[in-house]
Design a protein that fits this description.
By secondary structure, the chain is of the alpha+beta class. The chain has helices spanning 2-6, 10-35, 61-69, 73-80, 86-94, 146-160, 175-183, 206-254, and strands at residues 54-55, 102-107, 113-122, 130-137, 165-171, 187-191, 194-200.
């Protein structure tokens, strides 16, 4: 039994702790709101499963570009409405405005982005503020609900930024994206090969702000753990390489 404990992956143990802590914090917050008399139907309709969704910054540009360039031709067509070339994708990444917009990513354990969302915020004086949502998911990661979770995360942030309208422009053949929008209650307007979706957002409340805070902290902790795990395994690989070199040297000396 002692040997089994030694073999437990510290990465998995720390992730279980962080996930439990995040879930407990959210549940405790909702219970506090219930006791405070906040109607539970205002608590939002976000999924209960925890998926770490990181707000991306300038430092993540290389990972963003790698993710976008790895998309196949059809995926680029669905994401941008045309078969974007590598140069067009690089230009898109270079022009990302991290100060104005909100960009989210879901990372695997190697810190590669497997799914990404771009919430482009549009604010004009004298007009209701709105935001446009776009998402891309790696082919091998489809079917895991990442697109829907990124949409939920974007909606939460848009509410807290007092955005009143969320807009999606998609090809009519992009069934997964339109299904996500429709299930959220968006109004769909189809015009031939293109469809526009409009979703009116409720006002922000204490629950939406607390939930976003917890979600951000959970994502940051998850990212940090993955960074530590990569450094740890890299260190072990270097140690093993040194040991192999020493053994090879001893073997040659013995000969």
């Amino acid at each position: 039994m002692g040997k089994n404990k030694l073999r437990e992956n510290p990465y998995n143990m720390r992730m279980m702790f962080v996930e439990t802590l995040a879930k407990t914090t959210v549940d405790a917050g909702r219970e506090w709101l219930r006791r405070a008399g906040v109607p539970q139907d205002r608590a939002g309709h976000f999924s209960t499963g925890l998926i770490p969704i990181c707000p991306l910054q300038q430092e993540h540009v290389p990972a963003i570009q790698a993710h976008m360039l790895s998309l196949g031709g059809h995926d680029r067509y669905l994401r941008f409405g045309f078969a974007a070339t590598d140069e067009q994708i690089k230009r898109y990444v270079d022009e990302l405005n991290f100060e104005r917009d909100e960009i989210y990513g879901i990372f695997n354990r190697h810190l590669d982005i497997v799914a990404m969302a771009h919430l482009a915020i549009l604010k004009e004086t004298g007009r209701d503020s709105m935001a446009e949502f776009g998402v891309s998911v790696q082919a091998y990661a489809r079917g895991r609900g990442y697109g829907g979770r990124l949409f939920e995360r974007a909606v939460m942030h848009a509410r807290n930024e007092q955005i009143s309208l969320l807009y999606i422009h998609a090809l009519s053949e992009n069934a997964p994206m339109l299904r996500i929008a429709k299930s959220a209650g968006a109004t769909l307007e189809r015009d031939g090969s293109e469809t526009e979706a409009y979703l009116r957002l409720p006002e922000r409340d204490l629950d939406s702000r607390v939930t976003e805070l917890v979600a951000d902290q959970f994502a940051k902790a998850n990212y940090s753990i993955k960074e530590d795990a990569i450094r740890f395994w890299s260190f072990l690989a270097n140690v093993q390489e040194i040991r192999d070199g020493v053994r090879a040297g001893r073997h040659q000396a013995a000969e």
